[in-house]
Amino acid sequence: MIQTQKLTSLAFALHDGRYKDEKELSHDQKSQAVKKLPDLLEYLSYMFYFHGIMVGPLTFFNDYIAFIEEKDVTNKSEQSSMKHPTADLNKLVVKKLLVATACCLGMMLLPGLFFNPEKLNSPDFYSWSFAYKVLFILGAMTIAKQKYYFAWKLADAVNNAAGFGFSGYDQHGSPQWDLTDNVDIWGVEMSTSLKVNIDSWNKKTLLWLRRLVYDRAPMQKTLSVFTCSAFWHGFYPGYYVTFGTGALMTVVARQVRRNIRPWFQRSVYSRLIYDCITFIATRLANSYICFPFLILEFYSCINMYKSIYFFYHVLTLASYLCFYVMTSSRSRPNPTVFNRGQLQTADQSQLQTGTAKENSDSNLPQDPIKQD
């Protein structure tokens, strides 16, 4: 999967750099464009470097070459008076390793205590109440994510230990080693919007999809991204159920944030209420969307959704219809005003016609009978 990302990203970068007019490229595409065809050593080194061969994360060709040629740290540190980027690198690597260790322990210990993901779609699951099913899905998916946290944080630490991952300085002058950071655990678990939740998960894959699909798709960009992501993962039906549901909820979540959020920004308390509601809704939506990713089989996914009454699908579709009706009513012209305008126009035209007729009648000769 990582090799597919590297190969396709390099292919598009070469296409942008060698065959497209520079005026047609965005600023991001210009920064990633590759104008010179890599030689065999550069290509194989990029595709199979040891600290990114297993779980990645994806790195783009220009970033990797800058690391190999030591331009990533040298150029950015020379342009700044801040301390050298590698000054506290060892401490940062240790912190990331500790986070990875904690996630590993959670992955191994928590399923034996409660919310074991293996009980999803089990006979016991279908015997539980609706509320406990929803709660169990939420807890099981939280535990299931620990293995991804562990792998990505470990990979990030390994890349940083190799000297790869420096992206510049923040506004406080601290070195940032997040070029190979693939997940924001806090953003995933504590976000108050589905967009932030998605943006915090598998960040390099999201960047790959944005650069290769979203920025280039002529239409239906969101649907194109989710379809490509499902196809990239494989052919298990559960992947397509997850990404199809995710695409629908992402579209509706944008409408909710655009239309509902402004009503809660009038005071601190209303904003707090909105954040609490959206936090719970986002956590439930994330687990509701993602559990087919573990189940994989189509009918098993449908049976699980059926056991909880497709409740989030129903809420999502109902919200979509409400926003559609609201949008249609806003864009529809007011028939009363329109008809009144027509009447006013008609009255004015009739008045003008009558006046013109009177004027024309005054120019006619008098009735000869009356003259007599």
TrEMBL record:
Q: State where composition is biased (Polar residues).
A: 347-365
Cite a single Pfam family from the UniProt record: MBOAT
Q: Which residues form a coiled coil?
A: none
List the membrane topology term(s): Multi-pass membrane protein
Task: Write out the GO cellular component annotations.
Answer: membrane
- Which is a GO BP term held by this UniProt record? lipid modification
Residue segments, region Disordered: 347-372
Task: Kindly give the InterPro entries that the UniProt entry links to this protein.
Answer: LPLAT_7/PORCN-like (IPR049941), MBOAT_fam (IPR004299)
Which keywords, in A-to-Z order, does the entry hold? Acyltransferase, Membrane, Transferase, Transmembrane, Transmembrane helix
Q: Where in the cell is it found?
A: Membrane
Instruction: Report the GO molecular function annotations.
Output: acyltransferase activity
Enumerate the transmembrane spans.
46-67, 97-114, 126-144, 272-296, 308-326
Please indicate which superkingdom the organism of origin belongs to: Eukaryota
Q: Which PANTHER family match?
A: LYSOPHOSPHOLIPID ACYLTRANSFERASE 6, PORCUPINE
What protein name is recorded for this chain?
A: Lysophospholipid acyltransferase 2-like isoform X2
* Organism (species): Biomphalaria glabrata (Bloodfluke planorb)
